[in-house]
Amino acid sequence: MVALVLGLALTWAVYPTCALAATWQAVAEASQGQQQQFVDIDSIEPLGRGHVRVGSYYVDRRSGRSQRTDYLTEYDCDHRRFRDVEFDGPVGSSGWMPVAPDPLNSAAMEYVCEAIAQRKPH
Predict the structure, then answer these.
(1) Is residue 3 part of a domain?
(2) Alpha helices in 1-102 (DSSP H)
(3) Cβ proximity of 69 and 57 under 8 Å
(4) For residue 102, is it within any domain?
(5) How does pLDDT run along the chain (122 residues), one tens digit per residue?
(6) Is residue 47 part of a domain?
(7) How far apart are the first and last CA of the chain?
(8) Which stretch is the leader sequence (predicted)?
């Protein structure tokens, strides 16, 4: 039992954005399906002031082999920008960056921003 708990804790420490993920949703693809962006709809967390945090992953198959990069990203829905809070691959940005011109990241932002907009009481 102790080994199981330690194993789960280690998994979470190494892959925090996907260890607790339950429901992955494909939100965009490009290059005839060779690139795909997924978000964990259970991890969508409104932060206030038009900001939202979400776990996601990107898959790139253009080189002939599948490469996956996991992210924990914060989006600023009002100013259409993002920053990667955590990532496990060769790409990522800790500072605020515009979402455009990346169509996959734009689709992820639109999906999660719409999700938090629908949660707001009217």
Answers:
(1) no
(2) 2-14
(3) yes
(4) yes
(5) 444 333 434 344 444 444 554 699 999 999 999 999 999 999 999 999 999 999 999 999 999 999 999 999 999 999 999 999 998 876 667 789 999 999 999 999 999 999 999 886 65
(6) yes
(7) 47
(8) 1-21
Q: How many domains does the chain have?
A: 1
Distances (CA, A) of 104 to 5, 20, 31: 35, 23, 11
Domain that residue 101 falls in: 24-119
What's the Cα-to-Cα distance from 98 to each of 40, 95, 120, rounded to whole Å?
22, 10, 25
Has residue 38 been placed in a domain? yes
For the chain, give the number of residues: 122
- Number of Cβ within 10 Å of residue 94's Cβ equals 10
Amino acid letter at 62? Answer: R
Q: Long-range contacts for 77-81 (Cβ within 8 Å, ≥24 apart)? A: 77/50, 77/51, 77/52, 77/109, 77/113, 77/116, 77/117, 78/49, 78/50, 79/50, 80/106, 80/109
Residue indicated by tokens 């999660």: 112
- DSSP class of residue 42 equals G
